[in-house]
Amino acid sequence: MKPRLLFAVSALLAALGGPAIAADAPTAPAPAVVNINYQKTVLPNGLEVILVEDHRLPIVAVNIWYHVGPANEAPGLTGFAHLFEHMMFAGTKHVPRGEADRLLEGAGATDSNGSTDFDRTNYYDTVPSNQLELALWVHADRMGYLLDVLDQQALSNQQDVVRNERRQSIENQPYGIVEEALYHTLFPKEHPYYASVMGSHADIQSAKLADVRAFFTRYYGPNNASIVIAGDIDKARTLALVRKYFGGFKRSAPVVHPKVVTPPITRERRVVVPDRIELPRVFMGWLTPPAYQNGDAELEVLAQILAGGKSSRLYKSLVYERQIAQDANAAQNSYALTSTFVIDVTARPGHTLKEIEDAVDTELAALRDFGPSGREVERARNTIETRKLAGIEKLGDNGLANLVNRYNQYLGDPGYLQKDLERLRRVGAQDVQRAARAWLQQGTRAVIEGVPGRQQLPPDVAAPPTKAGKTTTAGINRDEAWRYKAPKAGPAPRLTLPRADAFQLANGLTVIHQYNPALPLVAARLVVASGADANPDDAPGLASFSAAMLDEGTATRSAPQIADEVAQLGAFLHTDSNADASFVSVFSLRSKFAQALDLLADVALNPAFPTAEVERQRASRLAELVQQRDEPEAVAAVAAAGALYGADHPYGYGRLGTEAAIRTATREDLLGFWRSHYVPANAALVVAGDITRDELKALAEAKLAAWPRAAAQSSAPGMPKTTRARLVMVDKPGAAQTALRVTAIAAERSTPDYPALEVMNAALGGLFSSRINNNLREQKGYSYGMFSQFRYDRTPGPFSIAGSVRTDVTGPSVSEIFKEVARMRAEPMAGTELAGARNSQILSLPVQFETNESIGASLADLFVFGLPADYYQQLPARYAAVTAQQAQEAARKYLVPEKMVVVAVGDRAKIAPQLDALKLGAPELRDSDGQPLTP
User: How far, CA to CA in Å, does 135 sit from each of 58, 67, 275, 590?
Assistant: First the structure.
């Protein structure tokens, strides 16, 4: 009998129009036909309801698009659409503030969030199929009854949250203000795309309650929305539920779509933006055709040819050959009013933006004058097609349901996917050349140079005091008493998590297989059970350096040849390393998997470590280390690692290691690490996707049986040497926020306390509705988000509470964190909180196996950590058995405040007095590489 994927599985292609590629397909099959079988109904009040039935997992994605974004904002209210997105989570008439998050997470919801782009605002959840009605109840109350309880306190709180988000994602993020300047330069100030999505502090803070009410009334009626429900549903029953919850809502006035003329750029515009960065970066932007209009697909292909990975022109020329750039990216960003084509390139240390711009201009001129080759276009099309199909592996988040909503809004055709693929396949070399000539001329662009310097931030206006009290206002829709009670869950779906199906090759290689015929896709991961833990004491980062070298040349293929072959297959090849393991992974269409696995085998078994490539990778890693110093949260992570484990422990560093170790690593060091650890007895090939066990066994024998048997070199890190300091500080003068970590060494992956720790952590800081995040974000507005997690290694890994907070509340934030830790230790959780935390872990497990890559990652953990084959099958019962006392005991055992180290990365002059008041003792000062500063 064939192993089943997870639950009662039926192929996604039943929802997508039948099988795309048969098991016995020829080597070069016809292009896949992928039709989304949807049902669209428009309710009398105008709400568009789109249903896609897909029974591969017992989960359902609910995705609502309101057809409003910055394109609809009034002058002087930039960022308002995004602010309003946050307001929709503030509480409604029948669902008090915070209750929706608590109920949904307790029901096993994942991917629960909202987002705003220029043309739309969406809200989405993925829930177990028996909790669909709960999700509809929540979303319906937001649409129908937000105004009934909207008050100034809710608005002020979300203004704080959004402004924290702006500080974190733009002002405290390297190149954030540089990219924002691109939009300011491409568009005139009165254009709705001018302010990007976030808007300014002044405009966010100037929003009034009356503005919020007017915006909701104008744009959040059912006739300006569409809801996609995709997953394990019965269409008739689901439509009846939508009618029940949404059908009685009143229409809003017809929405007038914006009539905006985007003035063309007729002369190159240039701006220089100083930023708190070490490496300069240039952004080039052009105005291009709107989404799905002529030229849009051609420019998407052009972006892939220019900067779509290691086979692209800019990578080969600027990064690989000339080594003047650290990275290069290009994208066609498709929107309704106009699109933007953006290239961004970061200079390597010692090189200038003038060199970068000249090199980019040379490549653009060549494309305009001579066009791309047919092979380049084919590689780009293949890669984009695989990416599009991979995108619908997930039902929720940015997956299938969201794509269906996008097609519906932009084209009025929810099932446009097959036409989209055909549109892509029609693009030829001459089409790409014509698009480059028509749209990417030097005189029609904006050029933004981000250079090291003092940030010039917009005014961060002070928030006025919040007036307490509720405001009773008239709602839009008639109240209905039954809406006050959350609906009960339906019958629980059958929960059958996977059991590893493993076999061994004669050379000792373990092969783990999971058959998943949902899409014609396969993901493979060769995992080696040696990572940073195997680094010599004097060579931090060696495992990562070795892994990065694997695809930089083999005995028979050069680095560029490997990149070109991967792209020609439309595949993705990746090498990496973490604390306990190293990886080589590939992802491809089923029809290309044999060739993709051949590439994986070649780079893993036959790496050549060419001297020239070692030097290229060395230069790249040194520049990456420079970039890491610009990211406050990354700096906090490496400083925390150094403080917890010490300089003699392999976990005491970040993935890259140190500058000294990178500079001194030799080819012989890298080759030696590979020879010692990349052996079959220390490795497993984990494959998930549309491939049978027999097919996989034949391929594994053909590609990997020749790997010579050898003994694995054992490695175990020594004892940590945690700093005696309670407070570690890294000074970032002028930082817009403080990146915080409160951390301690905790538990290993094999601990029997694992279920209790995960349940406890869910309530403390693991969930959005957790105590820490609710306190610092929702109640006090100190942070955009503060969360906690355990990292379980083969030896005890760190527990961390991490996030960024306003500079002026750094001390109070740390104080509140310790209060929440103390409260978790002091008393057992109440029954409702415990049930919610427990259920959130149990009921969200299916989503862990939603994509082939996530399935492979989960099954790889069984090998890396020596877990039993039926581990995931047993895990739900282990979670369910956790008691309040066990969770409290776990908190007392592992969360000892006196052993916790506070790491603060921010403006020392402003945060030191606040932290001194906490009496944590004298701070230990570290640099941006996480290493102690010499007194």
Answer: 15, 20, 43, 35
Nearest to 909 by CA among 748, 733, 762, 726: 733
- List, for residues 176-215, the tens digit of each pLDDT value: 999 999 999 999 999 999 988 989 999 999 999 999 999 9
d(Cα 79, Cα 908) in Å, to the nearest integer?
A: 31
Which amino acid is it at 762?
A
Of the candidates 803, 386, 832, 376, the residue with the CA atom closest to the CA atom of residue 571: 386
* Terminal-to-terminal C-alpha distance of the chain: 68
DSSP-assigned letters across all residues of 16-77: TTS-SS-TT--SSPPPP-----EEEEE-TTS-EEEEEE--SSSEEEEEEEES-SGGGPPTT-
The residue segments making up the domain with residue 248 are: 38-258
Contact 57, 7 (CB under 8 A): yes
pLDDT > 50? residue 11: no
> HEC profile for 363-382?
HHHHHHHHCCCHHHHHHHHH
Position 462 scores a pLDDT of 75
CB distance 636 to 905 below 8 Å: yes
The pair of structure tokens assigned to 492 is 């629980």
Confidence of residue 159 (pLDDT cuts 50, 70, 90): very high
Give the sheet arrangement for strand 325-333, strand by strand. 269-275, 445-452, 281-288, 339-347, 325-333
What is the Cα–Cα distance from 669 to 664, expressed in whole angstroms? Answer: 9
The C-alpha angle with vertex 34 and arms to 32 and 35, in degrees rounded to 5, equals: 150
Give the 3-state DSSP-derived string for 240-274, with helices as H, strands as E and coil as C. Answer: HHHHHHHCCCCCCCCCCCCCCCCCCCCCCEEEEEE
737 shares its domain with 591 = no
Q: Compute the average pLDDT of residues 241-269.
A: 94
CATH number at residue 520: 3.30.830.10
Same domain, 566 and 700: yes
Task: Produce one character per residue of 336-371: b if its CB has 16 or more CB atoms within 10 Å, e if not.
Answer: bbbbbbbbbbbbbeebebebbbebbeebbeebbeeb
CB-CB contact of 252 with 213 (8 Å): no
**662 within a domain of the structure (yes/no):** yes
The total of structural domains in the chain comes to: 4
- H/E segment holding residue 789: strand 783-790
Query: H or E stretch including 514?
Result: strand 510-515
Task: Assess whether 175 and 276 both reside in one domain.
Answer: no
Distance CA(437)–CA(288), nearest Å, equals: 12
Question: 336 near 262, Cβ under 8 Å?
Answer: no
- Planar angle of CA 300, 301, 305, nearest 5 degrees: 120
